[in-house]
């Protein structure tokens, strides 16, 4: 069993990576890109205050497995929206 799992590592990130097609996995792949774009936008706009630091620390709240992680991602996005709204004032 473990040998089969080990051999399956080669499939990660390929079209044969069936678990990679789940909604949670696709979201996990998009999050770093969204985070980097948000941070770049804030830096370009000249924001260098406590709100930006709070936004930079937000990814730490995304932990857990499956439904717990999904709930944490929803909370992350809600809090991110609140903080971004404060930077636009």
Describe this structure in words.
The protein has 89 residues and is mainly alpha-helical. The protein has 4 helices and no strands. It has helices at 2-8, 23-44, 50-57, 66-87. Helix 3 (50-57) runs antiparallel to helix 4 (66-87). The longest helix has 22 residues, at 23-44. The chain is elongated and about 55 Å long.
In total, how many beta strands?
0
Question: What does the radius of gyration come to?
Answer: 17 Å
What count of helical segments does DSSP give? Answer: 4
Structural class per helix/strand content?
A: mainly alpha
- What can be said about the biggest beta sheet? none
* Spans of at least 5 consecutive residues with low confidence: none
Helix content: 55-70%
How far apart, in Å, are the first and last alpha carbons?
56 Å
Average pLDDT reading: 87
User: How does the overall form come out from the CA principal axes?
Assistant: elongated
Strand content: under 5%
Q: Spell out the helices and strands N to C.
A: HHHH
